[in-house]
Write the structure tokens for this entry.
Amino acid sequence: MLVLLSILGLPFVAQTLAAQNMRVVATTGDLASLARAVTGDLAQVETIIPAAADPEAFEPRPSDFARLKGASVVVRVGLGYDHWLDKLLSMHGDAVINRGGAGYVDASVGIPLLELKGSSVDPANRDGHAHGLANPHYWLDPANAEIITGGIAEASIRVAPEVAAKVIANRDGFLSRLKANLTQWEQLLAPHRAARLIAYHNTWPYFARRFRLNIVDVIEIKEGVAPSPARLAKLAATIREQNIRVIVHEPFEPEEASQLLARRTGAAVVKLAPSVGSVPAASDYPALFDYNVGTLTRALSAASN
Amino acid sequence: MFEDVLAFAALPLAAAIVFTGIHTWFGLQVLRRNVVFADLALAQVSALGATVGVVAGHAVQSAAGYAYTLIFTAVGALLLTASRGLARSVRQEAFIGVLYVVATAATVLVVDRSPQGAEHVKKMLVGGILSVTGDELVKFIVLYSIIGAIHWLLRRPLLAAAGQNDTPTDIGRIAFWDLVFYLSFGVVVTSSVATAGVLLVFCFLIVPALVGGLFSSHIGVALVIGWIAGAAASAAGIFGSFLLDAPTGAVTVVTFAAVLLVAGAIRAFITAPAAERGRNRQRGLHMGGLVLCLLIGLSGAWVVIAPAGDHPILAMIETATGIGPDRFMTARERADYLEAAAIERRHKGEIDRLYDRERQSRWQGDELTPDEIRRIGSMQQTLTEMGRGERFVMDYLRTRGRERERWYVGLPLAAIGLIAAATIARRARRAR
């Protein structure tokens, strides 16, 4: 009886030990969800930016500093999107999760980046991002999950080589399910190929590329600065000329400008989730696309009727 | 396009004029009471109420949301009324400042408990007068008409209470009228701040009242002058924001400041009594001349000291006169300078072309492979770096030009500017 218990119980005990030992801290809910998919029950995964908050307006608090203490892996978006992490990490001082350490993951490494126009050359470069080198919203292309999870898996194996087989199996399983999902999502949006949209913030280039959508223009060209009336008038003209029916909006962005344009032109304001947790339905990475693709498909179908 | 411009401008302009209408009246009283920042404090306290309501789970526009806002505003009005009693031991303005800061900090703390609060705080500051709707405008007109009518009927006791600055004889009566004033003020400010934002409401309140006060001490006359000035500033701000393609609220604040400046100049140089006017004009000329000459002289001296630095005033003179640093380059340097500029432009064009190609490929034709995307990205980066190199060449050559220019342009500018400034300063002193 005792022997049987120990045989049954040992793997369980070993797993809980590993889970206690490995702590993954991700800056955003998207990366946390992907990290969870890779590490499964091997690690405890935490997120720094709270769900439903605007990640680009985030300011860290003392509790975030505490969260980094004792973390084995840190996963960040990079490209200046979570620039505040540098300061937290340098204060923390643990070499493993600092830049160059075994547990440090800049998820943007290896991603085919879009809109890589060095902003220092062209001050008129109005892509709406105050920081950074390229558009940082790369997780909105599910195909990029392969690269992101690759980085997370490598780091997890570097800090805990004994979990390698489990991590690789987890990642392969997740990616194959995601691939099947992606085919479905692409099929859902296929009838709306090249559909013309206006977005509030320049969040969607990767999403647009994956699902073949045409984001004609963005409303907010400078982060946090309300669009000028001249710009709104120009957008209204564009919307009418090109018969754009949908304005893509994010839950935490100020709604006034989008609603004003919608009232003037009859286009519909559609709220999409830029990140896991932005809306309750986007509870994890696959659910994020279930929600966004479903919502957008319904809006575009309604508009074309 | 033109229709849109009109549609986007008409409602905000109407709202701005409606706001000016009621706020000028309150502003005149605020100035009399010497509580300029009371509006900020009240608005912030009511914002705290609205925020508490949101965190408690009520929409801002719901009845419960309004109730939270109104209760907090009433508490704020009571505190402000009490502040007059404190005025003997503490300066009232200081108390109002503390109230404002505490209310703001409390809002931040409350907001910290709700994830989407930061947006709410930002909105309170900047507002969104551009997106005001017709329904909202009607609500404002009705609300302000009622408050305006009440104030018209009660204007004598209200103004009497406002005018009493030192230890009043009848404390209870004064406190009652103060409370009436602050309560109605709170309702007005709460409604306007939610639409126009703290910055703009402060302008609506103070600037027209100041302009009115410049020209008349009679409150009725000052009110009318303030209305005209406020309406002009609002129109200039809203149409200016179309012309400049800039955010409406910020531009309108600037035009209000400009109107105040112009009104000050009119008061000092045109409508002042004759003797005063002459003196003002002379003083204005002296001050203006002194500032201008000092700017020219110092910027000339700055070129002599640091030819490689930034020279904004010299650059303005250069564009105005056509004498640029390239005049002082050798033929070879000038050719290199122009070539570098041309290459940089070409790089920029190429970067934009690559960007457009990638953008089009998102939805048109065949999808680009990840490697093609990466190649476009690294080409863009390379071109950016190369453009930086060309800019470095241009900066270097410009500095070489400036190094020679400083003796021919910088030194004379410094000499002329500083000598002229000294002459004006001596004359101004003698005139006094």
Summary: Chain B is about 85% helix and 0% strand. Chain B has two domains: 2-211, 296-431.
